[in-house]
Amino acid sequence: MMSSESLPVIAAVMQVMAALFVILIGCAVLAIIVLFIIDVTQTRSAIRRNYPVVGRFRYFFEHIGEFFRQYFFAMDREELPFNRAQRSWAYRAAKDIDNTVGFGSTRDLRATGTVLFVNCPFPTLGIDAAPVGHVTVGPYCDKPYTSNSLFNISGMSYGAISKPAVLALSRGAKQAGCWMNTGEGGLSPYHLEGGADIVFQIGTAKNGVRDLQGNLNDDRLREVAAHEAVRMFEIKMSQGAKPGKGGILPGGKVTEEIAGIRGIEAGSDAISPNRHTDINSNPELLDMISRVRDVSGKPVGFKAVIGAYGWLDNLFSEILERGIESAPDFITVDSADGGTGAAPMPLIDDVGLPLRESLPLLVDKLNEYGLRDRVRVIASGKLITPADVAWALCMGADFIVSARGFMFALGCIQALQCNKNTCPTGITTHNKRLQKGLNPADKAVRVANYARNMNYEVGIIAHSCGVREPRELCRFHARVVTTNGLSVPLNELHPDVSPRGESSSAA
């Protein structure tokens, strides 16, 4: 029973709450009136003018639709850029939980372009399986790099991604024994902190190794190369997100620290040139490769999206004239269907060749000029599942790199906010509040799990095809579905090419 003394107090509280409720209702009505007046008098939006107040919900639903469509409206295999089945595999691999499924495949095996691996009647037994072989990059360098890591972290710069994300990737790469590419933003302390092998990317702005005018500075290059963890240098000619356009880092992401690492002005948009201003031809590209290799003593290659490909013939001919030691130590071929970088939609959607065409083209050209054993091939572009990686190995890649796959390992939900500094998972934002949810120690374990499980399941595919380890996969180990719904062997669609002067032979 309530005491008589408490009744007045309760009544007073209820009166106050009622008054607050009335005030809130009044404020809401007032706000609606103000918004109504603003909407019917403005001329920039026809929807808001014709449907005042209510029309504003369109923009709200448009925004949250990006987040909710993947959960409520998309089927397992239909969403882009990555469908639910692909993301789910990456999430489970990163968490190191059971990745088996039941009741059959949800994939349409009749769709044109579907890759089917050819299992053999006598698959490789566990006792006959071999560890992944080591591959050496840069045999003519003072400090060649040897690695057995199939699957590695592609270029994501500090600036484009956050400090916790870089730390998690660096630590996870060390645990998994794979390498990490810096992206074009220079070498930060957070890249080095984890102790992973580093590939330093030299973008068109030469961030991290530039002088005040944006030219390559040999002294700064030596400083970077002096770090034992920096194993290779990659000259970025172009990337999948924006072939023919330089990097774009919005000014909101250019903090004082990031500006200092890059050698640019804080707070301003960092827009790199659309190409290296000092590389105007194939001879100049080879000259730059030679210069970086001489200064650093380490392997040097380049990254490019392939569109026009006649230049490859000229490049490889030039190499043969100069001698094979002049060749790039590796070529990273990127798929022209977008990536982690902010970019105009026409470049993401409509420029360059996808990896399914450019990878076999590059490998065939290297074979044609007798350079395949000299130049290592790194494949990049939407390769986030074991089947993707196994296909790239079949087509001739020595290594595979992924950025978005490792973003999923960090917890990315494909919110499509990478360019807005509003990433809800803290990966691509410098907002401290949003970064709080990304714990580098925890996410490093997931990064390592993702890489290890990728290697393990690629091995499962390889053993099913009857080879001892993944790098023994060849084109005849896979087929691709054509327009009539039937499959043909990859080695018929892309016949193996022999060096000039030698006759081709079927595998």
Query: Distance N terminus to C terminus?
Result: 92 Å
What is the total tally of β strands?
Answer: 15
Count of DSSP-assigned helices? 17
- Give the strand order, joined by hyphens, for the main sheet: 4-13-12-11-10-7-6-5
Beta content comes to 5-15%
Please estimate the helix content. 25-40%
What is the CATH homology-level superfamily of the domain at 154-468? Aldolase class I
CATH class identity of the domain at 154-468: Alpha Beta
Please identify, by name, the CATH architecture of the domain at 154-468.
Alpha-Beta Barrel
Nutshell version of this structure?
40% of the residues lie in helices and 12% in strands. The chain is of the alpha/beta class. Helix 4 crosses helix 14.
Question: Can you give a write-up of this model?
Answer:
With 507 residues, the chain is an alpha/beta fold. Among the domains are: 154-468, Aldolase class I (TIM Barrel); 474-507, no CATH class. Helix content is 40%, strand content 12%. It is built from 17 helices and 15 strands. Helix 4 (84-95) packs across helix 14, helix 4 crosses helix 16 (440-464) and helix 13 (386-394) packs across helix 16 (440-464). The longest helix has 36 residues, at 6-41. The protein is globular and about 100 Å long.
